[in-house]
Design a protein that fits this description.
The complex is a heterodimer of chains A (153) and B (101). Helices cover 43% and strands 19% of the residues of chain A. Chain A contains 3 helices and 6 strands; from the N terminus they run αβββαβββα. Classes of the chains: A alpha+beta (153), B mainly alpha (101).
Chain lengths: 153, 101
C-alpha cells in the first residue's frame, strides 16, 4: 500500500460524486422533456435517473488477496465506483392537463417526466456535501503527510 | 511406535550466513548512485503526471478537475519528501566536512 493509497480512494469518491452530480443535472434539465425516448412509435417522457455505487474492487491486488486467503473483510478498500445508472420505473409519470401541447392525448392530458425538482434539490445538496466531506478527508490526509515530513525538525 | 533418537549433535541454531557482504567502495558508490537516481526519477514521474494532467485540462480534454488537483498535490508531497532527504544528506556531508583532522 503506497502512501498515496488513501488519496486514490478519495479521488474515486470525488469522481463518483461528480458523476452523481452530472446525473442530477440531467434530471433537472429534463424536468419538462416529454420526448425522452421513442417506444413503439410513441414518445415516452424522460425518466428520472439515479446512480448506484459499489466498492471499487476488481484490481489485481484485491483478487490476489482473495486468492491467497486474505478475506476481503479485513483489508483496506480501494474506494468506490458507480456500478450503474438506473432509470426510475417505479414512480409514475405526472399527468398535466394541457390540450394545446403537441404530445397531449385525446383527453388533453400530457405525460410529464417523473422528476421531482424538490427531490433533485435534496440529492444535489447531498452530493455537494459528500464531495466537500471527501475534500476534507483529502486535506486531512495531506496535512498528515506534511506533518510526517516534519519529524525530526 | 518408532522412537526418534535424540541427537545432541543437531545444531540448535543454523549458522548465520554471511549477511554483511563486503562491497568495494566503487560498488557501494554505484549502488547509492542508482538508488538516488531511481528515487529522483520517481519524483520526476509524479511531476510529469501532474504536468500532463494540467495540460489536458487546459486543452479541454476529458479530465476531472479534482484529478488534476490531486496529481499536483501528490507531486508536491513527493517533492517535499525529496527536499527533506536532500537536506538530511547535505547536513550529514557538512557534519563530516566540519570534522577536525
Amino acid at each position: 500500500m503506497s502512501i498515496f493509497h488513501s488519496m486514490n480512494t478519495t479521488a474515486s469518491a470525488l469522481t463518483s460524486q461528480r458523476l452523481r452530480m452530472d446525473v442530477i443535472s440531467s434530471n433537472m434539465a429534463n424536468v419538462d422533456t416529454t420526448r425522452g425516448r421513442l417506444v413503439n412509435g410513441e414518445w415516452e417522457p424522460y425518466r428520472r435517473k439515479s446512480v448506484t455505487m459499489r466498492p471499487l474492487e476488481g484490481q489485481f491486488s484485491s483478487f490476489l488477496n482473495i486468492a491467497i486467503g486474505h478475506s476481503s473483510k479485513n483489508h483496506v478498500g480501494n474506494g468506490v465506483k458507480v456500478s450503474s445508472i438506473n432509470e426510475d420505473r417505479e414512480t409514475p409519470f405526472k399527468l398535466v392537463f394541457d390540450p394545446s401541447h403537441p404530445d397531449a392525448d385525446e383527453n388533453g392530458y400530457v405525460e410529464m417526466p417523473n422528476v421531482d425538482p424538490l427531490r433533485e434539490m435534496v440529492d444535489l445538496i447531498s452530493a455537494t456535501r459528500s464531495y466537500e466531506a471527501n475534500v476534507t478527508v483529502f486535506n486531512a490526509n495531506k496535512a498528515m503527510l506534511t506533518k510526517a515530513l516534519e519529524i525530526g525538525k | 511406535m518408532p522412537i526418534q533418537p535424540l541427537s545432541l549433535l543437531t545444531p540448535v541454531q543454523q549458522p548465520i550466513p554471511n549477511i554483511m557482504q563486503k562491497s568495494t567502495p566503487y560498488e557501494a558508490q554505484q549502488q547509492f548512485g542508482a538508488m538516488l537516481k531511481d528515487a529522483i526519477s520517481n519524483v520526476n514521474d509524479q511531476q510529469k503526471v501532474s504536468d500532463t494532467m494540467t495540460n489536458k485540462l487546459i486543452r479541454g480534454e476529458q479530465v476531472e478537475l479534482h484529478e488534476v488537483m490531486i496529481a499536483s498535490q501528490k507531486a508536491s508531497i513527493t517533492l517535499s519528501a525529496t527536499m527533506e532527504v536532500r537536506n538530511k544528506v547535505i547536513e550529514a556531508y557538512q557534519e563530516i566536512m566540519r570534522m577536525s583532522v
